[in-house]
Design goal:
This protein is mainly alpha-helical. The chain has 4 helices and 2 strands; from the N terminus they run αααββα. 13% of the residues are buried.
């Protein structure tokens, strides 16, 4: 285990965030991305944002896109605030993903198709 993987920054504070941090680190290093020790701060922020996105999506699944609130006179339908929060942090997530070369466009033009070791274990071949 690398010092980067073992030492997430303090911003990575919950169990879920630590697990996300390690998963992202493993994915990056498996794909040949070279990280320096100070990259752990950006990696940590990406892990936190991805966990926040998961929580917001969970709230949307549980409570729906709309909620009813008591207005001055009537009960009104209002957009779930989780939708706006999700839309606000999504660009930050994609920006960090690009920084870590986690999107096809950020990796540049590739010749041929390269499969990673785990790509045959996704279960889709069994369908």
């Amino acid at each position: 285990m690398s010092g980067i993987r073992k030492n997430p920054p303090e911003s990575v504070s919950t169990f879920e965030q630590v697990q996300m941090y390690k998963t992202i680190y493993d994915d990056l290093t498996e794909n040949g991305v070279l990280l320096q020790y100070h990259d752990r701060h950006g990696l940590g922020e990406l892990a936190v944002i991805m966990c926040e996105m998961n929580e917001l999506r969970s709230d949307l699944r549980l409570n729906g896109e709309w909620c009813e609130v008591q207005g001055d006179r009537n009960v009104i339908k209002k957009k779930n605030p989780s939708r706006d929060a999700l839309e606000k942090i999504r660009p930050q997530c994609f920006r960090l993903m690009k920084e870590f070369k986690m999107t096809p466009s950020s990796r540049g033009k590739q010749v041929g198709v390269v499969e990673s070791a785990g790509s045959n274990e996704d279960g889709w071949g069994d369908v």
